[in-house]
Amino acid sequence: MSRxxxxxxxxxxxxxxxWPQKNPCRPELSEPxxxxxxxxxxxxVVANTxxxxxxxxxxxxxxxxxxxxxxxxxxxxxxxxxGLFCLFFDSACMDKPSNRSLWSDDRALRALSGSFRxxxxxxxxxxxxxxxxxxxxxxxxxAAVQVSQSTSIPASVPATIDFGFVYLRGSWxxxxxxxxx
Length: 181
Hints:
Elements: H1 3-15, H2 30-45, H3 49-55, E1 62-63, H4 71-79, H5 84-89, H6 97-100, H7 107-111, H8 116-122, E2 126-133, E3 141-149, E4 160-168, E5 171-180
């Protein structure tokens, strides 16, 4: 192999290593994530749609295990108060078939009888559990925040709401939401 070939191979390997890298999640990122989550919860409870939209990641949002819904589509749904707007804020429009079909693949969300806003307002004290997701080859940090109610709830109501975040460009982006029975 020529020196030039070896140099090119070495630069390719150093730019795209195939061995495990140090996880970019650092303990000091947990406090900004907690603050971001509490701000998002507050925005949902007070129905501040603009603040919720600003929290979304630039690629959109995943509902349960779905493919991401582009941010432009989410903005349109919020503007006309349908689809994800209903899931987040308005229990009255959740049962419309065109709205419910957006999250019908997720078992826990399918069973959800009220909006996230209603769930959070009824919750009383909330418990937040932050978990960094171990992704050593990723160049960004991922985290899941489980929000659970401290009061007993009916079996038909999801016990937790899961918020997924990615740390990119110096801040946390809200990228996924789901629920667990």
